[in-house]
Specification:
- The complex is a heterodimer of chains A (119) and B (342).
- Chain A has 6 helices and no strands.
- With 119 residues, chain A is mainly alpha-helical.
- Chain A has one domain.
- The longest helix of chain A is centred in the middle third of the chain and has 12 residues.
- The mean pLDDT of chain A is 89.
- Chain B is of the alpha/beta class and 342 residues long.
- Chain B has 2 domains: 111 residues, no CATH class; 215 residues, no CATH class.
- In chain B, 48% of the residues lie in helices and 10% in strands.
- A 5-stranded parallel β-sheet of chain B has the order 1-2-3-4-7. In chain B, strands 5-6 form a two-stranded antiparallel sheet.
- In chain B, helix 6 crosses helix 8 and helix 11 runs parallel beside helix 12.
- The longest helix of chain B has 29 residues.
- The chains are: A mainly alpha (119), B alpha/beta (342).
Chain lengths: 119, 342
């Protein structure tokens, strides 16, 4: 934690060392670190297996943009009729076999058991 | 230099400072120095005339942040906190997000928690990346004149050691309650993915103890909660001196031992912080930070996100860190320490 205080450092660290967030699979790998305590290699392998891609693909912006579009799990370019925000996280939870707190809270509030309850 | 001033150094001077920084950290923490190949790697890094360097393809790591929604505000850009989160997620390549209160301490967050929860509730509807709620334990706020407990800083000069220790213990109890309350509200009722304890142990061993206990309680209440603990320095100051956690004395712990207790308490991401010595050169500071951080990473079973903000982790202590210095610190920490994130 720690890409730090002063203005402009966030962008620099993202360029130098960062996975790229939604541009790639950075948010997905981060979820495995945060919620499962997985170290980076294990987290990348887990996400790659769940997405059906190689570990090298995870930080490839072109490949991941297509994968994210195909799986409808949210991407930077928000075109119409694609998942955004919470609906993307419903699919991420299912795809990664992961409990996401706000997704569970949303289902509880609207009285559904799962994403498939809508179908 | 550690304060960001640009200097020219010869190859011999760079090598000498790299070895001295490595030796300094190794002696303090009783851990191995950098090996010859790592010194050569760093020499190449400082020889390079490139303005920006980066990690090798495939070695990218996840980024987490401290006080994220205050950063844009500090630049006097008048946008809401949720807009800031979207800016980080969609414009700045953030792997994780963090909602925060501008007065970044759990004690202060407690007063506005009813206003923070709706912000979090709306943020989780609109964003996709995992999102923390974060603040500092900031034990100092619990003593006079800012809080209810007699100030240990007033007691210690009078030789009232036992009374000062009791004051620290009382402050810790107040802090634990606030951290557990704010963490619970934001996680259970607003949907945060995790809680971030930033700048932990700034007030020494009593603050580290309070934070570990708060983590332990939260982890027991919410086993799936993500918990990040970022530290304030490489060494736990013994302001109390006798506090222990899980049978381990907290005063004097270095990062490789701090992380073991954090992991035991329930932390899922740990952030060691190695302070800059402003009068020493960047090669000295970078090598010094790498030795501490590498030992921590090797001892850990949970992800390590080293602190590489202003004045820590080999990044100069200046409001506008030079890009060449910052990018070298970033790359070297990720590659030498095999980090999981920054």
């Amino acid at each position: 934690m720690g890409v730090g205080d002063p203005l402009g450092m966030h962008a620099a660290h993202a360029v130098v060392s960062g996975m790229g967030g939604l541009r790639t699979a950075g948010d997905l790998v981060a979820r495995m670190q945060l919620n499962r305590g997985m170290r980076i290699d294990a987290a990348k392998q887990y996400v790659a297996d769940k997405l059906g891609v190689t570990v090298a693909d995870l930080a490839d912006t072109v490949v991941m943009n297509e994968v994210r579009e195909d799986l409808d799990i949210g991407r930077v370019n928000e075109t119409p009729d694609v998942a955004k925000g919470i609906d993307a996280k419903f699919r991420i939870a299912e795809r990664l076999d992961l409990e996401i707190n706000c997704v569970n809270m949303f289902m509880k509030r609207v009285g559904i058991e799962s994403y498939h309850s809508f179908k | 230099m550690g304060d960001g001033v640009r200097v020219e150094m010869t190859e011999d001077e760079i090598r000498r400072d790299l070895e001295a920084g490595s030796q300094d950290a190794a002696e303090r923490a009783n851990v191995p120095t950098l090996i010859d190949d790592e010194i050569k790697y760093l020499m190449d890094l400082f020889r390079s005339k490139d303005r920006v360097v980066g990690v090798e393809v495939g070695k990218e790591v996840c980024l987490s942040y401290d006080n994220m929604t205050s950063k844009i505000k500090r630049a006097h850009i008048p946008i809401s906190k949720i807009q800031q989160l979207l800016l980080f997620e969609r414009g700045l390549g953030a792997d994780t997000l963090e909602l925060t209160h501008i007065d970044y301490s759990f004690k202060q967050c407690k007063h506005v928690v009813q206003y923070e929860k709706p912000n979090m509730e709306q943020a989780v509807l609109q964003t996709i990346a995992p999102i923390f709620y974060g603040a500092m334990p900031n034990l100092g706020l619990y003593s006079v004149p800012d809080g209810p407990v007699v100030n240990p800083g007033d007691l210690l000069p009078q030789g009232k050691i036992t009374e000062a220790q009791q004051a620290y213990e009382e402050m810790a109890e107040y802090a634990i309650k606030d951290m557990v309350y704010v963490g619970s509200e934001l996680y259970e009722k607003a949907g945060a993915d995790g809680i971030n304890f930033d700048t932990t142990a700034a007030s020494g061993d009593a603050e580290f103890y309070a934070t570990l206990k708060a983590v332990e309680i939260l982890h027991e209440k919410y086993p799936d909660m993500g918990i990040e603990m970022g530290m304030s320095g490489e060494f736990i100051l013994g302001m109390h001196g006798d506090l222990t956690y899980d049978g381990v004395r907290l005063a004097g712990l270095f990062p490789q031992d701090q992380v073991k207790l954090a992991q035991k308490a329930g932390v899922t991401i740990f952030g060691p912080a190695i302070n800059i010595l402003t009068n020493d050169s960047l090669p000295f500071n970078l090598a010094r930070s790498l030795v501490f951080t590498k030992a921590c990473s090797e001892a850990s079973e949970i992800p390590i996100h080293a602190n590489l903000g202003m004045g820590v982790g080999g990044v100069p202590l200046t409001l506008t860190p030079p890009l060449d210095a910052l990018s070298r610190a970033s790359k070297a920490h990720v590659e030498i320490c095999r980090l999981d994130g920054l």
